[in-house]
Amino acid sequence: MSIKVLYVEDELFLGKIVKESLETRGFEVVMEADGNQVLEQFTNERPDICVLDVMLPGRSGFELAKDIRKLNDDVPIIFLTAKTQTDDVLTGFRLGANDYIRKPFSMEELIVRIENSLRIKKEPLLTTNGDTIPLGKFQFHLNKQLLQGGAEERKLSYRETELIKYLYQHRNDVIDRRELLNHIWGNDSFFNSRNLDVYITKIRGYLKDDMNLEIITIKGVGYRFVV
């Protein structure tokens, strides 16, 4: 069964190219150019994923995402936009977006991000297999404070364990640096902030053998743990 994409784009020439390119890759595409018609299309078509341009006539992509989330908490949403401001990125994620692509973009990037968003949707937030969480090619043992990859085992400190746990619980979302500091250390003092930098660097080193795991720094905001 093909994946149905609700694609909202008011630049008709670009929209036609993207629509046809997705269709040649086996996707079913429902394209809409008018923001006022999107919710009706969403209700009638029941897409597997929504790809929304932010700047639209009638209603913005942000407004549409807010209304879509009232109807469905689960469907993945990807924003397409030429905007580069950090506040716009944060607005998108706070409204429930799964990903954010800046224009211009390649079709290969869009397809990978669509597939990744759909894959993440199918994964549970945490496993029910005791205290063990599969983390890419690693096994993360909470109670044992252990990160295992193949035959190698790495003993973790308490704070390393708590930090990895928090990152995983909020994976693929924007994590506010201050909230992370308050959760792990109890306050966001300068000393603890520098400690966090050190711990993030260490954990990146622990996970570097798996290219599918990445801790992205969002300048002035925090982090995003991409799994």
Helices and strands, with pairings:
Blueprint (H helix, E strand, L loop, with lengths): L3 E5 L3 H13 L3 E5 L5 H8 L3 E5 L7 H11 L5 E5 L4 H9 L4 E4 L4 H16 L9 E4 L2 E4 L4 E4 L2 E4 L2 H12 L4 E3 H8 L5 H18 L6 E5 L3 E5 L1
Parallel strand pairs: 1-2, 1-3, 3-4, 4-5
Antiparallel strand pairs: 6-7, 7-8, 8-9, 10-12, 11-12
Helix pairs in contact: 2-3
Label this structure with key terms:
single chain; alpha/beta; 5-stranded parallel sheet; 4-stranded antiparallel sheet; 12 strands; 42% helix; elongated
Describe the structure in your own words.
The strands form three sheets. Strands 2-1-3-4-5 form a five-stranded parallel beta sheet, with helices on both faces. Helix 2 packs parallel to helix 3. It is built from eight helices and twelve strands. The longest helix is centred in the last third of the chain and has 18 residues. It is elongated. It starts with a strand and ends with a strand. With 227 residues, the protein is α/β, with parallel strands linked by helices.
From the spread of the alpha carbons, the general shape counts as: elongated
Q: Characterize the main sheet.
A: 5 strands, parallel
Q: Indicate the radius of gyration in whole angstroms.
A: 19 Å
Protein structure class = alpha/beta
Q: Return the average pLDDT rounded to an integer.
A: 86
Low-confidence stretches: none
Helix percent reads 40-55%
Q: Order of helices and strands, N to C?
A: EHEHEHEHEHEEEEHEHHEE
Order of neighbouring strands in the sheet with most strands = 2-1-3-4-5
How many helices in DSSP terms? 8
- The N- and C-terminal alpha carbons lie at a distance of 26 Å
